[in-house]
Amino acid sequence: MKKYYVHPQAIVETENIGENTRVWAFAHILPGAVLGTDCNVNDHTFIENDVIIGDNVTVKSGVYIWDGLRIQNNVFIGPNVTFTNDLRPRSKQYPGEFLKTVLEEWVSIGANATIIAGNTIGKYAMIGAGSLVTKNIPNNTLWYGNPAKFKEYICNCGEKLNDELLCSACGKQYSLEDGIIVEQ
Prior knowledge:
- Helix content is 0%, strand content 31%.
- The chain has strands at 5-6, 11-12, 22-23, 28-29, 34-35, 40-41, 46-47, 52-53, 58-59, 64-65, 69-71, 76-77, 82-83, 101-103, 108-109, 114-115, 120-121, 126-127, 132-133, 141-144, 149-153, 174-177, 180-183.
- The strands form five sheets. The protein has a nine-stranded mixed beta sheet with strand order 1-3-6-9-12-15-18-20-21, with no helix packed on it.
- A hairpin with a 4-residue loop joins strand 20 (141-144) and strand 21.
């Protein structure tokens, strides 16, 4: 007996779906895809074969997740986020392996952002709506714009850090070590 929900209007060809995951109408998931527990895959999504999605991931409507995507736990992908997996696409010409794009734990990506293939978005990073990500994004940072630019350091809770790298919402303190933000 399946311990996950698939809407009758969805096409789910994989059995690799964790408990309590929900797949809504008009989603199509190919046979090689792996989805963790407690995920929510909204309407009008497509997930290719060479995709691994962790636990507690939210994929909003209109998102297509192509081969090569690695999505870790607790990630939020907003509506109509676009991923690429080939920097030089041609019709009917396929690379031996698609570029890997990694979304580390607790990443949040706003609606209509575009993520160029081969990049890693670090833990707890946030990408603003409509942004174009063209390079790796460090942990605990907020980026937005076209192309996306660094705007602020952010706490694990999602709030901006002050000039002393302290979160006024939850009290966590951070520091910079070799240009990388680290929780104290």
